[in-house]
């Protein structure tokens, strides 16, 4: 947020940024649009958790190579989301060669967070409409809506 000029009316009245009511909060009495559950996400995330529970059951008998594979998949998937979907495609913060983009596309799939196009769209909308009803990750709607709904 940019600093206010000293000769502004807010400085004269003693109102600071924290005590002001914004337009968004004054319109909260309006009815919100009905929330929709994205059933594909419900199915996929449920299946992922069931597979994870089965994997936890098998974990005590896992080989050292399996442990290495688990750690690598975790790191690669995280890199696909943070370096690829987030920094490269959503914010366009750097340019990448075609082989690196292909690699980031593949490892982004390992994270199971939708395809790059949906992830990028949702994250850009999240930044544009942060903490409003248009924000797909609005924390005010609760954790269930952030995960399952749109």
UniProtKB/TrEMBL annotation:
It comes from the Eukaryota. Its main location: membrane. The histidine box domains are involved in binding the catalytic metal ions. This is Uncharacterized protein. GO terms for biological process: unsaturated fatty acid biosynthetic process. Belongs to the fatty acid desaturase type 1 family. Its cofactor is Fe(2+). Keywords: Fatty acid biosynthesis, Fatty acid metabolism, Lipid biosynthesis, Lipid metabolism, Membrane, Oxidoreductase, Transmembrane, Transmembrane helix.
